[in-house]
Design brief:
globular; about 15% strand; single chain; about 350 residues
Length: about 350
Amino acid sequence: MADNEMVVASKMSPILQEIKTILDTARNNVARQVNNELLNTYWHIGRIICEYEQSDSARADYGKQTLRALSKELTKEFGKGFSVSNIQFMRRFYQTYQIQQTASVKLSWSHYCELLSISDTDKRNFYEKEAVNSNWSVRELKRQIESSLFERLLLSRGDANKEQVLALALKGNEISTPADIIRDPYVFEFLGLPEDKPFMESDLERALVQQIEKFLLELGRGFMFVGTQQRVTFANHHYYVDMVFYNKILRSYVLIELKTTKLMPEAVGQLNMYLNYYANEVNDEDDNPPIGIILCTDKGNFDVQYALGGLSNQIFASKYVLYMPDKEQLIRQVEAVLEKWHEDENSTGE
């Protein structure tokens, strides 16, 4: 490039950047306005259908035929977007959000189609709040629903009760303590690692780094990746933390140790040593104490209580799986926990 061209390009750079910013802002504003109008339109279509059915019980009996006829005429007049299933979602959209303002304009119609497929109100509210709070794409929302995030978060709390269900439904997953970032199990189906063949910790670490965006999504809100094999030195002896993150919500470093076996007590002691190092040598003045997570294939029961008990540092052990968990099994586990809580509450009341 000639010298004069380089000078012109240099002078153009701030102009070009400013124009790009204006165009990007305009594009986002247009997209947001289109989305708002679409949600408003579909809500009103749902309202008209519901009011039509409610005004005459005989009309409700012919609901499917009415929707088919509507679909045919609207598609003929306005094109795609008016399939019978989509019109059914419009009706359900109105039924679910009869006060229109309760539906978030931060989500797209595609988001709501995924959400409206969830019949349980508390669960649906949770995923809606998390989709807004975490700015999930439709694909990310679908993945979190399929991986039973709602049930996993409840089970991670150990003593789940109705108050926790309602708290998740009203606010999503609020992060105020280290325990709030823990999930159990973590789901790594996106790694593509074989379930029935052994692999080393280095293989697991490499796979997680290659899929770091998906791993960050699974970890949850506020995580920033620092690096792998972060060196810790004691008396000229070097040790290496498998993976280090920083959670900007908790303002804490999060140290993760990867194990391809069940939890062993020595792993807890090693991670505790790393946390002490980070607290004394790495933390800034405004950082909170670091948090440790051991990801293993199995936690056991009594071993975890004894291994993690009495430590001043925050260390958690969580199981990871390489496949989507059985959703029905997780739901049954949550129901069993809640049922036990209700029994305990009733016996205390007596």
